[in-house]
């Protein structure tokens, strides 16, 4: 009898769980998807709230480990299943840069873009994300050497950062600078990314979520 995969991803293809499928495909560990219909509020049911009181997807279970938040899931998966390949070792000088850019999207890019779009008035020195223009310049500077955030070395930080940039560019939430567009295009050529998109599209078709 085949033992089921340890890893279970609580999933809906229209949530950030879609990008975790890409993370899992890059890592290469076996996993299963557990669909929750967010349109029916199933992400707020007792099962999910017990795992993540925020009532949000994604949530990943790996045996007894429970991880929520996209960046945390990616960092966990890379350390657990692809250390030295998708995650620099603890004593690797590149580890700090890797962690910075894995956490930068949720901590800095997203709130800065939201503040910019909504026209928030705030004291730049008091906001952890600073100025929108400085955020864009920092990302552009980091990506300009290319092809990846650590130069020639592709890591989970690229999956996390790239997922955010792709989404925000798609919905015109971020200035479409050529460096960003080129980076997202390169990421789209990765076989694991393409497999993840196919998997998410299959769930959309199976569940009748299109349209």
Would you write up a description of this structure?
The chain is of the alpha+beta class and 211 residues long. The protein has 2 domains: 7-85 and 192-207, Glutaredoxin; 95-190, Glutathione S-transferase Yfyf (Class Pi), Chain A, domain 2, CATH 1.20.1050. The chain is built from 8 helices and 4 strands. It has helices spanning 17-27, 46-51, 70-81, 95-118, 132-143, 156-170, 178-188, 191-207, and strands at 7-11, 31-35, 59-62, 65-68. Helix 1 (17-27) packs across helix 8 (191-207) and helix 6 (156-170) packs across helix 7. It is globular, with a radius of gyration of 17 Å. It starts with 6 loop residues before the first strand and ends with a helix. The mean pLDDT is 96.
Question: What's a quick, concise take on this entry?
Answer:
This protein is of the alpha+beta class and 211 residues long.
Q: Write down the overall geometry.
A: globular
Task: State the distance separating the first and last CA atoms.
Answer: 40 Å
User: Beta-strand percentage?
Assistant: 5-15%
Structural class: alpha+beta
CATH top level label of the largest domain:
Mainly Alpha
CATH topology of the largest domain: Glutathione S-transferase Yfyf (Class Pi), Chain A, domain 2
Biggest beta sheet attributes: 4 strands, mixed
**Helix/strand order, N-terminal first:** EHEHEEHHHHHH
Ordered list of secondary-structure elements with their pairings:
Blueprint: E1 7-11, H1 17-27, E2 31-35, H2 46-51, E3 59-62, E4 65-68, H3 70-81, H4 95-118, H5 132-143, H6 156-170, H7 178-188, H8 191-207
Parallel strand pairs: 1-2
Antiparallel strand pairs: 1-3, 3-4
Helix pairs in contact: 1-3, 1-6, 1-8, 3-4, 3-6, 4-6, 6-7
């Amino acid at each position: 009898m085949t033992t089921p995969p340890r890893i279970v991803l609580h999933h809906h293809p229209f949530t950030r769980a879609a990008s975790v499928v890409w993370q899992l495909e890059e890592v290469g560990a076996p996993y299963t998807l557990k669909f929750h219909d967010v349109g029916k509020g199933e992400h707020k049911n007792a099962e999910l709230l017990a795992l993540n009181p925020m009532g949000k997807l994604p949530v990943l279970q790996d045996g007894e480990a429970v991880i929520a938040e996209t960046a945390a899931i990616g960092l966990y998966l890379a350390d657990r299943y692809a250390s030295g390949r998708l995650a620099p070792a603890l004593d690797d000088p590149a580890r700090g840069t890797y962690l910075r850019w894995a956490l930068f999207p949720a901590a800095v890019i997203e709130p800065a873009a939201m503040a910019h779009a909504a026209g928030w008035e705030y004291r730049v020195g008091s906001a952890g994300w600073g100025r929108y223009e400085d955020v864009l310049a920092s990302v552009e500077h980091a990506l300009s050497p290319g092809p990846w955030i650590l130069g020639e070395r592709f890591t989970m930080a690229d999956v996390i950062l790239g997922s955010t940039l792709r989404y925000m560019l798609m919905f015109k939430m971020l200035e479409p600078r050529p460096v960003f567009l080129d980076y997202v295009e390169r990421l789209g050529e990765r076989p694991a990314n393409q497999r993840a998109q196919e998997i998410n599209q299959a769930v959309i078709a199976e569940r009748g979520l299109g349209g």
